[in-house]
Structures are given as structure tokens and as C-alpha cells.
Amino acid sequence: MDRFDTMLAFTRVVELESFTKAAMSLNLPKTTVSAQVLALEKRLRVKLLHRTTRRISVTTDGAAYYERAIRLLNELEETEAALTQSTASAKGRLRVDVPTPLGRLVIIPALAEFFKRYPEIQLEIGCDDRPIDLLEEGVDCVIRVGNPQDASLVARRVGTMQFLLVAAPQYLNTYGRPMYPEALQHHQGVHFFSSKTGKIRPFMLTHAGTEQEIPAMRKLAINNGDAIVAAALAGLGISQLPAFMVQGYLTEGKLEKVLADFPAGSLPINALYPQNRHLSSKVRAFIEWVAELFEGCRLLQKTS
Is the four-CA dihedral 192, 194, 197, 202 of positive or negative sign? Predict the structure, then answer.
């Protein structure tokens, strides 16, 4: 039984406090992971884990071994990555999670180029924006919009989400076109709210040199960007949406910019991955490709 395999199995059980979760994250049967840890304890002649019917905890010897093992595993990956810089080294299963609009409109339409560049990667993409435990769910990295909240993850900036205030012509013809930010309080707003916190995102505009929250009548709040686009197209009110999601409708005249002279703000787009895992060649390949893809899209870059 390979020593590094048993070491990896043990560290994952410690991190997830579960043989079942560790097996899922490693894409192995639970019996295999259990056998690897037992073999490790037998070889070392020490008890590494306390096992009960309710929980698994690490022993003093196990904690000491974990600290050394995780360093060795990271050094091994770093050494291999340094010696295999060609694209051929980027291979194997890669699981990522991306926000649905970015996946649908930007990332997935460009995947033919990704697979042409990295033919040995088997990619699994989750299109979601929910909080994810990367280790527990076996996800290698996620793309997220906004400032990182989890200190256990490494963040790599890959782009910027620009926002615009928009509305359908039929709405503006009925209710008028606001000429200054304060006028929004007399208009119907279609807002985004977070499924996680329930918090409604206010309209933000740069006014008098500073970014300010601009009040509007909250006629409707929706927790999905595509649904907000549909509401805006239906003439239900003014919405603040990512520029890349609405540019096509602006070009077709189905939506119009509102208060275009007042910038509607932006949020960073980051690639996130666990900090206790060395960045593997396949994860590095995906992040570099996404950064390059977003760099080529002016709507996903910060405006001056």
C-alpha cells in the first residue's frame, strides 16, 4: 500500500472528521480509506485516531503526525509541479463551482478552447453560488463574486463584476426616466436578495465622488440574477445587474441604461481554493485560463 496514499487518506479523515466524507472527497470506497488508515497505524505502531459511534477525533500522536504529513504532501505536490510545467501535466478529474450566470454566459461557451489546451482534464462544473465546504464536497476550487469571507481559502483575483442600472423601455415610457440618483426613490426597484442571509442588496451609485446607497421603492426582490433580468425585461422596474448579463439586451434595445452618468459600482471576482493544499497543475491551469478568459472580456474588468 503506497505510503503517500495512506498519508493522504489520514489527513483527509482528520480534516473532515469522518471516514465517509473523506472517502467521498477522495473518490474512494469508505472501506479503502479505513483500511489505509488502519495500515498506517499498524506500520507506525501508534493510535492516530479516537473512534466512537458518534465522532472521530485525533490523538496527540495523530495531531503531531498530521502536521508533518501535510507538510510532506504539500512539498511533494510542489516538487512535482515544479518539474512538470508542460500542459501535459494538467490532467485528471477537476471539480469546480461557478456562479450560474458566469458559467452559462462566459465560461461554458468558451470550454472548447479549454479542452483543446488541456485535453487530459475531466472537468465537473457546478453552477451555483451557495456556500461550499470544498474539502467535504470534493471541490477543487470555486469562482465567487465579492470579497472573500472564508479565511481558510486562498483567493486569486481573476476579474471584476461591473454593474449597471437598467430598465425596459416600456417601464421608462410609463414612469419616466430618472435624471439624478435621488429620483430613484420615486421608482419601482427590482432587487437581489441573498438566499444565505436574506439581505436585500441596495442600489449603489457613485455620486458626488463617493459610492452611496440610493433608496428606491422595493417593489420586488428575487434571489436569482437570471430571474431579475426576466423581471426587468417584463417592465417590472429598475434593476441593478452585472453588465455582462444585460449587454445583449441593451444592444437589442430591450433594456436601457438608467443614470448612465453615475457609475453603478463593481465587485471583485475571485478564484478560491483551500490554503492547506498546494495548488495542483490542473487547478492552476483552470484558474489561469479563467483569468485569461475574463481579461479578454471588457465587461469583467475594472473600468478606469
Answer: negative
* Residues in Cβ contact with 163 at an 8 Å cutoff, skipping those fewer than 6 apart: 204, 240, 241, 242, 243, 264, 265, 266, 267
Regarding whether 113 and 55 lie in a shared domain, the answer is no
One domain for residues 298 and 166: yes
Amino acid at 198: G
Beta-bridge mates of residue 97: 126, 142
Residue 113, C-alpha cell as written in the block: 478552447
Q: What is the pLDDT of residues 60-117, one digit of tens each?
A: 898 889 888 888 887 777 666 655 554 446 888 899 999 999 999 999 999 999 999 9
Per-residue pLDDT tens digits for 16-73? 888 988 888 888 899 999 999 999 999 999 999 988 877 888 898 988 898 888 888 8
Give the separation between CA 240 and CA 213, rounded to whole angstroms: 12
Total count of residues recorded for the chain: 304
Domain count, the chain: 2
